[in-house]
Amino acid sequence: MLTGLNIAVIGGDARQLEVIRKLAELDAKLWLVGFEQLDHGFTGTNKTKLEEVDLSIIHAIILPVSGTSLNGQVDTIFSNEEIKLTAEILARTSDDCVIYSGISNAYLNKVTKEANRKLIQLFDRDDVAIYNSIPTAEGTIMMVIQHTDFTIHGSNVTVLGLGRVGMSVARTFAGLGAKVKTGARKSAHLARISEMGLTAFHLENLKEEAADTDVMINTIPYQILTADVISNMLPHSLIIDLASKPGGTDFAYAEKRGIKALLAPGLPGIVAPKTAGQIIANVLSQLLHSQLEKGGSLNENEK
Ligand code: NAP
């Protein structure tokens, strides 16, 4: 149980509802900021505005997967109000308050550092990234089906990168009967790709390997699908770029060549917000339990 823990959930989308549900079930006390248009009520929670929260008793702040914008805005789909997080606001929380976010950026790193508060990026964790790769792979299937007139079965699918997303995507498309080849730069990755029964190639040879590809799926957050590579691709081929913004594709060149190239961020939140929310909720509840057990987060009179 999380009894005694005071948590501010600031902003978010449908995924955050799973987090709220789980933490409320565990008896945490929750202040929900940016949720006034949410019809559903959760026991033990208060819908409120940021300026109305007594931040001095807050032990944890939970931000959306995206964290903040580069100006500090926190996105919410349940409110029209603008929410801005600043170092001054964070500094008013309890000294041991922990800030939990999906990902971070220069702004969020800076304000948490200035306020001397710990920031935990959930998507840095292997467990979250691996669980999250499942709805990502399913969302990729959806996009490929939507944007092609041929079956995945029997088509030539090239996956770039054998990280947490690349491995799930490659395996899933192979399971659907695609002829999957996967590009990587590390010899251990190339060995793993072969072990998985897929065709491995070194990224140095990407231009040649791209020539017979029907569907190219990129997971490498680095400009890898350059004009030179795209110029060697088939006119009907489809590029799905899963890497975080701005992706790894020369989109302008792809458009010039008439090759459809789509940046596809946030697929788990689109195709499976409930599961994606549960993944975050499960790991958050473990982290909050250990925060509570360490006792570091509670004031002496609250322990
Ligand atoms: P990851 O485990 O770190 O894998 C990244 C892969 O990219 C690794 O295979 C890495 O290989 C390779 N790589 C990185 N820089 C490279 C470079 N300069 N040249 C060649 N290869 C390079 O990351 P992940 O969890 O799989 O996530 C991959 C991307 O997808 C991230 O940008 C993530 O934010 C994004 N993502 C998107 C969605 C979505 O819905 N679209 C969902 C989840 C994640 P090495 O080991 O050789 O560096």
Could you describe the 3D structure shown?
The protein has helices at 14-25, 87-91, 106-115, 126-146, 164-175, 187-195, 206-209, 227-230, 251-257, 267-271, 273-294; strands at residues 6-10, 29-33, 45-48, 60-62, 98-101, 118-121, 156-160, 179-184, 199-202, 215-218, 238-241, 260-263. It is α/β, with parallel strands linked by helices and 303 residues long. The protein has 2 domains: 6-124 and 273-294, Rossmann fold; 127-269, Rossmann fold. The strands form 2 sheets. It has a 6-stranded parallel beta sheet with strand order 3-2-1-4-5-6, sandwiched between helices. β10, α8 and β11 form a beta-alpha-beta unit. The longest helix has 22 residues, at 273-294. It is elongated and about 60 Å long. The protein starts with 5 loop residues before the first strand and ends in a 9-residue tail after the last helix. The model is unreliable at 297-303 (pLDDT under 50). Bound molecules: NADP nicotinamide-adenine-dinucleotide phosphate. Residues 129, 132, 136, 161-166, 184-186, 203, 219-222, 242-244, 264-268 line the site of NADP nicotinamide-adenine-dinucleotide phosphate.
